[in-house]
Design brief:
about 450 residues, alpha/beta, 5-stranded antiparallel sheet, about 40% helix
């Protein structure tokens, strides 16, 4: 560790509030270009997590840098009661890729803000206040989204949450007792679990509801929840559940949208149209940009009811400029198709790796939103949480940034930039294989002999 890094760590310990346990430590990041980031010790890392899952088109993409430079010269911020040119143009571009009649957008800074607004929007439009979300979901850390976040470790110690929030059980097809393997490598099937979760969630909500249902908030893939993708039949069942109770269905595509999961929006794949879609991480390419999009009919209701969700940073010019650049890059560089192709290549390589390393219990995900669940035994599926931490740390030591997630802290999450090169993917896979090999060598090494009492 260089003196510079030691000095920075000392300053961080004195002056930085840790936003979660264990974040004030080396490495300290200093540079980022494409899929490679560098620390203050001069080491380089393959970023297989796109920063905080945001730099989907790579760190400091030239088109985003140019858009930001132009915005700096023209206008970064404007009065929240006025519209920006770039914000209007971005709203029109988003309308072209949205399903159904979703065509009106508002821009905020973060995914938490976008989901907060979507919840408020649903409450105002319906006149009700109860919100349902999935067990294992992550929607953000502001009050409304946090109350609807049921990911491990996010809830304890903060006092009562927002009243009227309900967790709905979600089928985990890998761990379901009803799971059967498809004939292809697409994943697991657990339709009996789907029926059980829909019936149980419906019964629990109806028993506890105060008769004021407003919204169902859903991640199409539970990213922080272990890269768990609920079956299509489950999400269709949730849509029916919402419609029968007059609730709006909000699809949180902050982590799945705009190419991350191999399509413009996962919401296109279910045979129904959500009432609201939120975007964030993939829209800003590493900068704080998010959006909420809904229908003209819902907006008419909001206007009539004098809906208000203003803030200092609403429809900022820089946000519009950056979002427009991101959409243009996705189209011009063919990144949607690249996400699918590269994701399938990584999954195929991991399946080959699984033939060598018994820790790999399941490989799942879409596009470049991938998860690898580690287990101690493939039959019992006992979570290998300690081994997962060891694997993560070995990869980091070798220059590969990954993430641990899931209810049992045993899922390695991989979300590299779509612009990552094939050679960088190969290098990342080689680091993973080497980490497993070192773990196997450690497991095979004889345990150190206990010191003899006579020696003391």
């Amino acid at each position: 560790m260089t003196p510079r890094t030691e000095t920075l760590l000392d300053l961080a310990r004195k002056h930085i509030i840790p936003h979660k346990p264990g974040v004030i430590r080396a490495p300290i990041m200093a540079t980022g270009q494409g899929s490679i980031v560098g620390d203050t010790d001069g080491r380089s890392y393959i970023d297989f997590l796109s920063g905080q899952v945001c730099s989907t088109i790579g760190h400091s993409h030239p088109a985003v840098v140019e858009a930001l430079r132009e915005s700096c010269e023209r206008m970064l911020h404007c009065n929240a009661n006025m519209q920006s040119e770039t914000g209007i143009l971005l709203a029109a571009e988003l309308a072209a890729i949205m399903p159904g009649r979703l065509s009106k957008s508002l821009f905020k800074s973060s995914g938490s803000e976008a989901n907060e607004m979507a919840i408020h929007l649903a409450k105002k439009a319906t006149g009700n206040w109860e919100v349902v979300s999935l067990a294992g979901a992550f929607h953000g850390m502001t009050s409304g989204p946090r109350a609807s976040t049921f990911t491990s470790g996010t809830r304890g110690g903060y006092g009562p949450g927002v009243p009227g929030t309900f967790a709905f059980p979600v089928p985990d097809c890998y761990r379901s007792r009803h799971a059967t393997r498809k004939a292809t490598d697409d994943g697991w099937v657990c339709e009996e679990s789907v029926r059980e979760c829909l019936a149980m969630g419906t019964a629990l909500f109806d028993a506890q509801s105060q008769g004021s249902p407003a919204a169902v908030l859903v991640e199409p893939i539970l990213s922080a929840g272990g890269v768990t993708e609920p079956p299509v039949s489950f999400l269709r069942g949730l849509k029916t559940f919402a419609e029968e109770r007059g609730m709006l269905l909000i699809m949180d595509e902050c982590q799945t949208g705009l190419g991350r999961a191999g399509s413009w929006l996962v919401s296109h794949d279910y045979g129904f149209v959500p009432d609201v879609i939120t975007l964030s991480k993939t829209l800003g390419a590493g900068l704080p940009v998010s959006s909420v999009t809904t229908t003209p009919e819902i907006v008419d209701i909001l206007v009539e009811k004098r809906f208000m969700h203003s803030a200092s940073h609403v429809n900022d010019p820089f946000a519009g400029a950056v979002g427009l650049a991101v959409l243009r890059v996705l189209k011009e560089e063919g990144l949607i198709e690249q996400s699918r192709r590269k994701g399938e290549a990584i999954k195929a390589a991991l399946r080959r790796m699984a033939q060598r390393w018994e820790w790999i219990g399941d490989i799942r995900g879409r596009g470049l939103l991938l998860g690898m669940e580690l287990v101690r035994d493939r039959d019992s599926k006992e979570p290998a949480d300690a081994e997962c931490r060891r694997f993560h740390d070995l990869c980091l030591e070798s220059g590969l940034i990954l993430n641990i997630c899931g209810a049992y802290n045993n899922v390695i999450r991989m979300m590299p930039p779509i612009t990552i090169s094939d050679s960088e993917i190969d290098a990342a896979l080689a680091i993973m294989d080497s980490a497993f090999r070192r773990m196997a060598e450690d497991a095979a090494a004889p345990a150190p002999r206990a010191a003899s009492l006579a020696a003391h």
